[in-house]
Give the backbone structure.
Amino acid sequence: MLKLHKISARIAGITVLREIELVLPPGQLIAVVGRNGAGKTTLLRAIMGLLPISAGRITLDGIDLGGAPGHRRPSLGLGYAPEDRVIYPTFSVEENLRLPCEVLGLPQREIAQRLERVIDVVPQLAPMLSRSGAALSGGQGKMAALGRALMVGTRYVLLDEPFQGLAPVLANQYAESLQRLHLSDKSLCIIVTESNRSLLRDLPDDTLTLERGELQSSPVETS
């Protein structure tokens, strides 16, 4: 289980996260909502090891992740789709999806199995597989980023503002993919950040509010 123990983080000398205490149990779809600048992206980047924390600890199954740099955290089952997608334009969509698994050195058979699972969850990706990353629209890029996160996110998937800027049709497809994923894998925890709570509809099991770097509602508890 992933736990945040009173973590704080600073950017350019400014405190962005303040003593965040949070438990992220398997099988949950958790939303973190807050206005722009509240610290949502910083929270996800801290979990992924892409931003150092200034205080506190992040543990996975009781093991402190402080010694695990960002490039190693996908090997622990953590997948991340940033708000800006970061799709490699000269790679095909399939190559973009396979890339993190290949970097981890996974066998080709396992990569193929994971790709098949991703297509089951996000079927809109199937006709895009041979298309170059440069040919994707913004919404299609977000679908590809979701698929890439799922390729390595076997335990936790972190999605930063996934619905922002999506046309209604793609927003519906994205929500349906998240619902399929949530229903099909009860061992997976999905964390979604959003500025606009209404975009999340009734997807989350729990919704937390982040305001000025502090959680404004109780963290998720487990027995």
Q: What stands out?
A: The domain at 2-215 is CATH 3.40.50.300 (Rossmann fold). Residues 168-184 form the longest helix (17 residues).
